[in-house]
Specification:
The chain is α+β, with helices and mostly antiparallel strands and 77 residues long. It is 17% helix and 35% strand. It is globular. The mean pLDDT is 87.
Length: 77
């Protein structure tokens, strides 16, 4: 899907120790992040939270143009 800050695609966890679970991968262009310190603070808060009503952030990574957030995949309505 496409949102205000980026696009979201579905991806599968790979590797020998993975369970093959599906994840959501949000790609956020760095040029759309106006306050990087605030953005990184929000990412750190999401990383620390563990609550059934808040999406789980598994990992983040970035390249020259984008920041990627790997989260729990929420399907449904």
């Amino acid at each position: 899907g496409v949102g205000a800050f980026g696009t979201v695609i579905r991806g599968r966890v790979k590797g020998q120790t993975s369970d093959g679970a599906w994840r959501a991968i949000k790609k956020i262009p760095k040029k759309k992040v106006t306050d990087k310190v605030e953005f990184l603070t929000e990412i750190e808060l999401l990383r620390r939270l563990d609550h059934p009503n808040i999406i789980k952030l598994y990992e983040t990574f970035e390249d020259d143009r984008n920041i990627y957030m790997v989260t729990e995949l929420c399907s449904g309505g």
